[in-house]
Amino acid sequence: MTEAVRPSNFIGNHIRRLRFEHGEMTQEALAQATGITRQTVIALEALRYAPSLDLAMKIADVFGQKVDAVFFRQPPTIEI
């Protein structure tokens, strides 16, 4: 029996969807607008990186959204 547990602090986001809703914004354009690298945007979208509060606020500002409209906490899941 294999068990996989996602940490309780798993942070999901809507960045990819929001980029496309905002004129098909590129990852590079979002990176430049927020002062991060394109690689960081890739990691955020792939859910390999949870942003600092400051970065989350910058990203939300770019899209004209509240932070909780861009980022959300998901409960842990257990696969058995």
Strand content: 5-15%
**What is the topology, as strand order, of the major beta sheet?**
1-4
What is the CA-based Rg, rounded? 14 Å
Low-confidence stretches: none
Shape: globular
Share of helical residues: 40-55%
How does CATH name the architecture? Orthogonal Bundle
Task: Please state the average pLDDT score.
Answer: 88
Fold and architecture overview:
The chain has 80 residues and is an alpha+beta fold. It has a single domain, classed as 434 Repressor (Amino-terminal Domain). Helix content is 48%, strand content 12%. The chain is built from five helices and four strands, in the order E-E-H-H-H-H-H-E-E. Helix 2 (27-34) packs across helix 3. It is globular. The model has no long low-confidence stretch (mean pLDDT 88).
Chart the SSEs and their pairings.
Layout: E1 4-5, E2 11-13, H1 15-21, H2 27-34, H3 38-45, H4 53-63, H5 67-70, E3 71-73, E4 78-79
Antiparallel strand pairs: 1-4, 2-3
Helix pairs in contact: 2-3
Give structural attributes:
single chain, 80 residues, alpha+beta, 434 Repressor (Amino-terminal Domain), two-stranded antiparallel sheet, two-stranded antiparallel ribbon, 5 helices, 4 strands, 48% helix, 12% strand, globular
Describe this structure in a few short sentences:
With 80 residues, this protein is of the alpha+beta class. It has one domain (4-79): lambda repressor-like DNA-binding domains (434 Repressor (Amino-terminal Domain)), CATH 1.10.260.40.
